[in-house]
């Protein structure tokens, strides 16, 4: 399962900026649609190629377990997801923001009954100047490691631990300039073909630049997946955020939508590809923000080899 950058509202054009300005076309929203078509075509093309490989969903026994492990945030599965969130039509010139998250997941066994799962989200952000037609900025955002302590077995799968936001942004407009910390909890069940669960956290600033606003921010990501044959699945995993420091009309972002994905082998390498589209049913009233978003992901999977 893909996760998010806790430290910022991905749909707001005012949350991020960058270290280096570059010129871009003012009509990047058209490119978003073209990219969506391209990635969807690529996703479908993998079906024909993967038929000549061994799809993960048909690979004697590993199959269903691997697909479900991908959808479990606290699974004992090493993975390296690369996820891009494209947020178009921001501001009067219809600019596009891109947040590319590199988010490795590393589980560590603690004794017989517990796992410690580290998820480290490193965002690379292209942030347009929404007051201009062509200028954009690019750089590193605030890195967000989260650690979950989770039992190794059980029908109800859960994990709990700290979420940390590090002020690593390469420019002030890229991040919040604060050290932030708070609890994170995830719980899910996987009956039959389904995966159903939710992840929630809230972080508060505990230090950092005194000139920057304090942070008090909640994130809720529910996820529902239905697994089909040959590694395909349908799913939704919107990221709902609330900035408790903002005024009431600018506090919430509530996306609605979903998409599809597939787990298969590319040669000997298991990968998970995914495409989802969301419309923001609630978004800031006065701040520049995107009405919809496109999320694509490619994740490299490293399941444990059976002895």
Overview of this protein structure:
The protein has one domain (20-302): Porin. The chain is 11% helix and 51% strand. It has two helices and 16 strands. It has helices at 28-52, 62-70; strands at 20-23, 78-90, 95-102, 105-110, 114-128, 135-140, 144-151, 157-165, 178-189, 194-208, 216-227, 232-236, 239-243, 252-266, 269-282, 292-302. It has a 16-stranded antiparallel β-sheet that branches.
Summarize the topology:
Layout: E1 20-23, H1 28-52, H2 62-70, E2 78-90, E3 95-102, E4 105-110, E5 114-128, E6 135-140, E7 144-151, E8 157-165, E9 178-189, E10 194-208, E11 216-227, E12 232-236, E13 239-243, E14 252-266, E15 269-282, E16 292-302
Antiparallel strand pairs: 1-6, 2-3, 2-16, 3-5, 4-5, 5-6, 5-7, 7-8, 8-9, 9-10, 10-11, 11-12, 11-13, 12-14, 13-14, 14-15, 15-16
Strand content: over 45%
Helix content: 10-25%
Q: How many DSSP helices? A: 2
Q: Count the beta strands.
A: 16
Fourth-tier CATH superfamily name: monomeric porin ompg
The low-confidence runs, each spanning 5 or more residues with pLDDT under 50, are: 6-29, 45-58
CATH architecture annotation name: Beta Barrel
Q: Helix and strand string, N-terminal first?
A: EHHEEEEEEEEEEEEEEE
Mean pLDDT: 85
Shape: globular
Radius of gyration: 19 Å
Name of the level-1 CATH class: Mainly Beta
Largest sheet: 16 strands, antiparallel
Structural class: mainly beta
Termini separation (Å)?
26 Å
């Amino acid at each position: 399962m893909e996760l998010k950058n806790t430290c910022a509202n991905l749909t707001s054009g005012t949350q991020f900026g960058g270290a280096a300005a570059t010129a871009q076309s003012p009509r990047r929203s058209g490119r978003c649609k073209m990219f969506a078509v391209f990635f969807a075509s690529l996703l479908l093309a993998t079906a024909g190629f993967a038929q000549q490989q061994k799809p993960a969903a048909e690979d004697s026994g590993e199959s269903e377990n691997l697909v479900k492990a991908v959808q479990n945030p606290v699974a004992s599965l090493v993975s390296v997801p690369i996820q891009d969130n494209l947020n178009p039509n921001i501001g009067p010139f219809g600019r596009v923001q891109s947040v590319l998250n590199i988010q490795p997941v590393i589980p560590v066994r603690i004794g017989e009954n517990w796992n410690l799962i580290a998820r480290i989200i490193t965002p690379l952000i292209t942030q347009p100047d929404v007051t201009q037609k062509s200028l954009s900025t690019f750089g590193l955002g605030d890195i967000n490691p989260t650690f979950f302590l989770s039992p190794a077995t059980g029908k109800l799968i859960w994990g709990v631990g700290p979420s940390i936001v590090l002020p690593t942004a390469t420019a002030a407009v890229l991040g919040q300039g604060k050290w932030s910390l708070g609890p994170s909890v995830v719980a899910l069940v996987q009956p039959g073909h389904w995966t159903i669960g939710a992840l929630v956290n809230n972080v508060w600033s505990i230090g950092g630049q005194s000139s920057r606003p304090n942070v008090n921010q909640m994130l809720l990501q529910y996820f529902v997946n239905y697994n089909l044959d040959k590694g395909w699945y349908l799913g939704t995993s919107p990221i709902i955020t609330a900035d408790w420091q903002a005024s009431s009309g600018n506090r919430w972002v509530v996306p609605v939508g979903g998409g599809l994905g597939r787990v298969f082998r590319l040669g000997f390498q298991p990968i998970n590809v995914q495409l989802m589209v969301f419309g923001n049913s609630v978004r800031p009233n006065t701040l520049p923000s995107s009405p919809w978003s496109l999320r694509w992901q490619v994740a490299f999977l490293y399941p444990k080899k059976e002895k």
